[in-house]
Automatic annotation (TrEMBL):
This is alpha-L-rhamnosidase. SUPFAM superfamilies: Six-hairpin glycosidases. Residues 7-20 have a biased composition (Low complexity). InterPro entries: 6-hairpin_glycosidase_sf (IPR008928), 6hp_glycosidase-like_sf (IPR012341), Alpha_rhamnosid (IPR016007), Bac_rhamnosid6H (IPR035396), Bac_rhamnosid_C (IPR035398), Bac_rhamnosid_N (IPR013737), Rhamnosid_concanavalin (IPR008902). Its EC number is 3.2.1.40. Residues 696-765 form the Alpha-L-rhamnosidase C-terminal domain. The lineage of its organism: Bacteria, Bacillati, Actinomycetota, Actinomycetes, Propionibacteriales. Residues 1-20 are annotated as: Disordered. It is an enzyme of class 3 (hydrolase). Residues 238-334 form the Alpha-L-rhamnosidase concanavalin-like domain. Residues 56-227 form the Bacterial alpha-L-rhamnosidase N-terminal domain. Residues 340-694 form the Alpha-L-rhamnosidase six-hairpin glycosidase domain.
C-alpha cells in the first residue's frame, strides 16, 4: 500500500468486535419498581410448576440488572457471585449471568407456589462514579431482567420472566453505594418475601424500563466472588479513643459479622488502607465515605454488605456492644474469580513480599473491571495502568476471558469516539463535566496504546489468535488515529500526554511533570504499537495493512532518530524512561542501542540505583538494562530499599503496590498529593521481568508452545522457583546458584519445547519431561 503523508492519514471507523453470542430467546422485559425503596428494592413473583410433565430435568436462570442484583429461587440464593452483572459499557453491552438452577427446582411434581426474587442495589449503573461527586450516569432507575427456563422430563418447557405482574418492595438496606458504603437496618430484615403467600404489605407495582435487548451479551469472564477471608491480627484503641482493627493485609471486599446488642443501636465501620498519626488515614479516599452501618434489631443480627466494596487494611469500629474481639469479625476478599496460574519465589524475602504485593494488587483491582485503584472516589478502568500491568497479569492469573471482555468495552467505546481509546474503559468520564484543568480527552500514549498492548499481552500468554482478530479493529483504528495526529515531522509530539506519569521527581500536585519529554515517550510508543499492529495484520493475513503499519513504524523510527537522537548519541531529555522505551521498543539501530544502554546504565548509577521512572518507563527499565548488558544495574535497581524504589514500600510494611513511589513518606505521613492510593498495580509491572529473568519462564512462541527458560541470576539471589500453567500443561523451573554454577530443574509439559539459555552456557533444546541440569558455570 502506498504510504500516505502521516499528517493526513484518515481514521476509518473501527471494525466492530463481534459481540459474544446471545443465545437466549428473550421474552422477559426489564422491569423497574414504581418506588425506589432507598436504592435497594426487592422484586418478586410466584409461580407453580406445571403438572403432568414429570419432574424438572433442567432449569436455567438468565438474569441481569440496571444496578447489581442477587437472585433467589425457591428460598435459596442463586449462585455465589456478587456484584453481578458488574460494570460494562452499558450503553452498548449489558452482560447477563446464566445459572443452572435445576437442583433448586428438584421438588417433585409439587404444586406449591415457588418464589423467584431479585434484590437490587445501585452498583456502577446508578451509584457514584468518578471524583466529581456525580452519580446516575447510565440512568436513574434500577431495573432487573430475568428469564427462568424450565424443562420437564417429557420435554415440555415453561418460562418465568420479569414482567409487569411482578411486585416490588423495600429491603433492610437503607443506603448503598460502591464508594460510600452500605447501611442496613436489621429491624427491617426478613426472609418472608422469599416465601410463597407473602402478604407484600406496602409493596408496589413495576413498570417496563428501557433496555434494548439486542445489547445483551452472556458473561464470558468469571464473575466476582468471595475469594478469601482474613481475621483481625490486632485490635486496639487509638490515641483519640477509637477502636481500630488491623487485618494485616490491604485487601478489597468487606467485613462480615454476627452480633447481638440493644435494638436501635448502631455499629459503624469505617475503612482505610493506612494509619496516619496512629489514627485511620482516610484522606486518600477523598470523598468516598467507605462507611458501613448496621442498626441492630435486638436479636442476633448477621451483617454482610454485599452491595458495596472497600479497599482497606484497617477498620474503625464504633458502637460495638461489649468488647470487640478478633473472633467477632471476618474480612471477606472479593475479586473477579480468576484462576491463579503463575507462581514465583526466590531466596530474597523482600522480593517475595514485593511479588505477593503485586498479586494482591491484581486481586484487589480486578473487581469485574481492571481498575487503577479500589478504594477512593475513582476505581476506574484506566487504560494506561492496564497497558503497563497486562503482561504481569496474564502470567499470574488466567485472565484471558476477563481481559477480552474488557477489550470488548474498549472496542465499543472507541467505535463511538472516532477511534479514540479513552482514558478509562468503561468510559464514564465522557459524562463528567469537563473540568478546565483536565485535558480534553484524545488519544494518549501508553493509555490509548492499551488497545494494542493489552491485546498483545493476552495473545503472547495464551496463543489464541482470535484475540487478535477480535481486537484488530480497535488496534488498527487506534494506530491510524494516532498517525493522523502526528506533526509534519512524523513525531507524536502533539496534543495532551500523561507521559511518564508519576515520575518520582514530579511534584505531588503535578503527576505529569516528568523528566522524560512527552513527545519522545509518545513517539516511541507509536513505533511499538505500529510494529505490533503490523505483526498482527501479518498473522491475520491482512497484507495491505501489514505493509501500511510496517511503513508507519519505519517512518516513525526514522523521525525519532532524526529528531531525538542527538549528535553525542544521547536522547532528547536524557531521562531513564526515554532510553528504556527506545531500547525495548526497538526504535534504534544496533550501535545506537548499545550507546543508549550505556547511557541508561550511567543514569541509573548516577541516580544511586533509585527508581527514576513513572508509569511509562517502569515496566521496561529492567528489560532495557538486561538487553544491553547491564544486568547488574537492573538487579541493583530492583533491590534498592531506599525511597524511591520498588522495595521501599516493602520496608514500610506495604502489602500492596502503591500508586506513588512515596505514597507513604519515610516519616510515616501520607503523601500530600490529592491522588495517593496504596493499591495501584501499575508500578508492579516489574513482576513480569522477575518472572522471565529471575524465574526464567518466558514465551518463546505465543501461548508457550515453545518456552524460553533463561534465568539470569544476580543480586545475590541464590535460588528461585517458578511455575506456570500454560495452555499445554505446567512448566516449572527452579534453580540454585552455587560455587560451581547453576543447578537447574525444568519440567516441560507434553507438546512443548523448552529453549534453555544459561548465562555463558550453551543453548539446549529440551522436549517434554523432567530435566535436571547440573552444574552449568554461571557467566
Ligand atoms: C490517576 C489514576 C490512574 C492514572 C491516571 C492518569 O487518576 O489513578 O492511575 O492512569 O491518573
Amino acid at each position: 500500500m502506498p504510504s500516505a503523508p502521516l499528517a493526513t492519514v484518515s481514521t476509518p471507523p473501527a471494525e466492530a468486535t463481534p459481540p459474544a453470542e446471545d443465545t437466549v430467546d428473550w421474552t422477559a422485559r426489564l422491569i423497574s419498581p414504581d418506588d425506589d425503596f432507598a436504592g435497594a428494592p426487592l422484586l418478586r413473583t410466584e409461580f407453580t410448576l406445571e403438572p403432568g410433565h414429570g419432574p424438572v430435568t433442567a432449569a436455567v436462570l438468565h438474569a441481569t440488572a440496571h444496578g447489581v442484583f442477587e437472585a433467589h429461587l425457591n428460598g435459596a440464593r442463586v449462585g455465589d457471585d456478587v456484584l453481578s452483572p458488574g460494570w460494562s459499557s452499558y450503553e452498548w453491552r449489558l452482560r447477563y449471568r446464566s445459572y443452572d438452577v435445576t437442583d433448586l427446582l428438584a421438588v417433585g411434581e409439587d404444586p406449591a407456589p415457588i418464589v423467584l426474587g431479585l434484590a437490587l442495589g445501585n452498583g456502577w449503573y446508578r451509584g457514584r462514579l468518578g471524583w466529581s461527586g456525580g452519580r446516575d450516569y447510565y440512568g436513574d432507575e434500577l431495573g432487573a431482567l430475568a428469564q427462568l427456563e424450565i424443562t420437564y422430563a417429557d420435554g415440555h418447557g415453561q418460562r418465568v420472566v420479569t414482567d409487569t405482574d411482578w411486585r416490588a418492595g423495600p429491603s433492610a438496606v437503607t443506603a448503598n453505594d460502591l464508594y460510600d458504603g452500605q447501611d442496613v437496618d436489621a429491624r427491617l430484615a426478613s426472609d418472608d418475601w422469599l416465601r410463597p403467600g407473602f402478604a407484600a404489605d406496602g409493596w408496589v407495582g413495576v413498570h417496563v424500563g428501557e433496555r434494548d435487548l439486542t445489547t445483551l451479551e452472556p458473561y464470558s469472564s468469571p464473575p466476582v466472588r468471595r475469594v478469601g477471608e482474613r481475621v483481625p491480627e490486632r485490635i486496639w484503641t487509638s490515641p483519640s479513643g477509637r477502636t481500630l482493627v488491623d487485618f494485616g493485609q490491604n485487601l478489597v471486599g468487606w467485613v462480615r459479622f454476627t452480633v447481638q446488642g440493644p435494638a436501635g443501636s448502631v455499629i459503624t465501620l469505617r475503612h482505610a488502607e493506612v494509619l496516619e498519626h496512629e489514627e485511620l488515614g482516610t484522606r486518600p479516599l477523598r470523598s468516598a465515605k467507605a462507611t458501613d452501618r448496621l442498626t441492630l434489631s435486638g436479636d442476633e443480627d448477621f451483617f454482610e454488605p454485599t452491595l458495596t466494596f472497600h479497599g482497606f487494611r484497617y477498620l474503625e469500629v464504633d458502637g460495638w456492644p461489649g468488647g470487640l474481639t478478633a473472633d467477632d469479625l471476618t474480612a471477606v476478599v472479593v475479586s473477579t474469580d480468576l484462576e491463579r496460574i503463575g507462581t514465583f519465589e526466590c531466596s530474597d524475602e523482600l522480593l517475595n513480599r514485593l511479588h505477593r504485593n503485586v498479586v494482591w494488587g491484581a486481586r484487589g483491582n480486578f473487581v469485574d473491571v481492571p481498575t487503577d485503584c479500589p478504594q477512593r472516589d475513582e476505581r476506574l478502568g484506566w487504560t494506561g495502568d492496564l497497558a503497563a500491568f497486562a503482561p504481569t497479569a496474564v502470567y499470574l492469573f488466567d485472565s484471558s476471558d476477563f481481559l477480552r471482555d474488557w477489550l470488548r468495552d474498549l472496542d465499543a467505546e472507541q467505535r463511538h469516539a472516532d477511534g479514540m481509546v479513552p482514558f478509562v474503559v468503561p468510559d464514564v468520564l465522557k459524562y463528567l463535566e469537563h473540568p478546565p484543568e483536565f485535558p480534553a480527552p484524545d488519544s494518549t500514549a501508553v493509555w490509548s496504546d492499551a488497545a494494542v498492548w493489552v491485546t498483545w499481552a493476552v495473545y503472547q500468554a495464551y496463543g489464541d489468535v482470535s484475540v487478535l482478530s477480535d481486537a484488530y479493529g480497535a488496534m488498527a483504528a487506534h494506530v491510524r488515529r494516532v498517525a493522523s495526529k502526528v506533526s509534519p515531522t512524523g513525531l507524536w509530539d502533539t496534543g495532551f500526554q500523561f507521559g511518564d506519569w508519576l515520575d518520582p521527581t514530579a511534584p505531588p500536585e503535578d503527576a505529569a511533570r516528568a523528566k522524560a519529554d512527552p513527545g519522545v515517550v509518545a513517539t516511541a510508543c507509536l513505533v511499538r504499537s505500529a510494529d505490533l499492529v503490523a505483526e498482527s495484520a501479518r498473522l491475520l493475513g491482512r497484507d495491505e495493512d501489514a505493509t501500511f503499519f510496517a511503513d508507519l513504524a519505519a517512518r516513525t523510527r526514522a523521525a525519532f532518530v532524526e529528531h531525538y537522537v542527538l549528535d553525542d548519541g544521547t536522547l532528547r531529555s536524557d531521562a531513564v524512561t526515554v532510553y528504556a522505551l527506545a531500547i525495548v521498543f526497538g526504535v534504534l539501530d544496533e550501535a545506537q542501542t548499545a550507546r543508549a544502554g550505556d547511557r541508561l546504565a550511567a543514569l541509573v548509577a548516577e541516580g544511586g540505583h533509585h527508581i527514576q521512572t513513572g508509569f511509562a518507563g517502569t515496566p521496561f527499565v529492567t528489560d532495557a538494562l538486561t538487553l544491553t548488558g547491564h544486568l547488574d544495574d537492573a538487579y541493583r535497581l530492583l533491590l534498592q530499599t531506599e525511597c524511591p524504589s520498588w522495595l521501599y514500600p516493602v520496608t514500610m510494611d506495604a502489602t500492596t503496590i502503591w500508586e506513588r513511589w512515596d505514597s507513604m513518606l519515610p516519616d510515616g505521613t501520607i503523601n500530600p498529593g490529592e491522588m495517593t492510593s496504596f493499591n495501584h498495580y501499575a508500578l508492579g509491572a516489574v513482576a513480569d521481568w522477575m518472572h522471565r529473568t529471575i524465574g526464567g519462564i518466558a514465551p518463546a512462541e505465543p501461548g508457550y508452545r515453545r518456552v524460553r527458560v533463561a534465568p539470569r541470576p544476580g543480586g545475590g539471589i541464590v535460588w528461585a522457583r517458578s511455575s506456570l500453567q500454560t495452555p499445554y500443561g505446567e512448566v516449572a523451573v527452579s534453580w540454585t546458584d552455587g560455587p560451581d554454577g547453576l543447578t537447574l530443574d525444568i519440567e516441560v509439559p507434553d507438546g512443548v519445547t523448552a529453549d534453555v539459555e544459561l548465562p555463558g552456557g550453551p543453548v539446549a533444546e529440551l522436549s517434554a519431561g523432567a530435566h535436571h541440569l547440573e552444574p552449568v558455570p554461571a557467566g
